[in-house]
Write a structure and sequence with these properties.
The protein has a seven-stranded mixed beta sheet with strand order 7-6-5-8-9-11-10, with helices on both faces. Strand 10 (190-197) and strand 11 (205-212) form a beta hairpin. It has a single domain, classed as 3-Layer(aba) Sandwich (Rossmann fold). The protein starts with a strand and ends with a strand. The longest helix is centred in the middle third of the chain and has 13 residues, at 94-106. By secondary structure, it is an alpha/beta fold. Helix content is 29%, strand content 32%.
Length: 213
């Protein structure tokens, strides 16, 4: 499992051939179906295109994804971790969950969880320990949400990934100031391993790779 290059694009080998999640482009190579990973629709793909160096998604690992939405990025993570991995998809919106469930039905390694990421105790019996906690939650308390979930679920030496949208933290403040204050918060609990601004794919977004201290 891994990220494949397709011309100037990136792609993942589909775990569910014949099923498209977000009308993504597909192609076949050596009898296998691959799905083009659109960096304008996925912050993780945008980080990869911007040179992400730390990439923990390997076949067979377990991942907790906070803010799964309709499953666009989740579906590519599902491709990467394969049939032996488990992807726990936490989403608060019931409308988004309806679409997410359709994706999960085609991918046996994805587990949809309708819940508020602020209260991880409500899904701790389902999730267990994971190698990666990934968060893309548009909330002013995004760092706090990340901290409580990482403390509860992340394995020793695990990786945390955060897609931060500056206006969701404070729409009245400049993004540079928001990043500065956010990083002060993060450093209380995490080591910042890598940070990437996601423009031009996503405006006012910064992507972080973290390790627990």
């Amino acid at each position: 499992m891994g990220v494949y290059k397709y011309g100037g694009k990136i792609a993942t080998k589909s775990l569910a051939p014949g099923f498209r999640v977000y009308a993504e482009e597909v192609f076949k190579k050596n009898g296998k179906e691959y799905r083009v990973w659109n960096p304008f629709k996925s912050k993780l793909a945008a980080a990869i295109k911007k040179g992400l160096k730390n990439f923990p998604f390997k076949e067979g690992i377990n991942v907790l994804y906070l803010g799964a939405a309709t499953g666009t990025t989740c579906s590519h993570v599902s491709d990467l971790i394969g049939k032996k991995g488990k992807l726990f998809c936490v989403e608060f919106s019931a409308d988004s969950m309806k679409e997410l469930i359709k994706v999960c039905e085609k991918r046996r390694n994805m587990y949809p969880i309708l819940a508020d990421a602020r209260t991880p105790e409500n899904y701790e019996k389902i999730v267990g320990k994971v190698e990666v906690v990934y968060e893309d939650v548009a909330d002013p308390e995004q760092v706090k949400i990340l901290e409580i979930n990482a403390k509860k679920f992340l394995k020793k030496n695990g990786i945390v990934m955060l897609a931060l949208k500056a206006p969701c933290i404070d729409s009245s403040e400049k993004k540079g100031k928001i990043y500065e204050e956010t990083e002060k918060q993060l450093k209380k609990e995490f080591e910042i391993v890598e940070k990437i601004d996601l423009e031009p794919f996503e405006k006012e977004h910064r992507f972080y790779v973290l390790k627990q201290q």
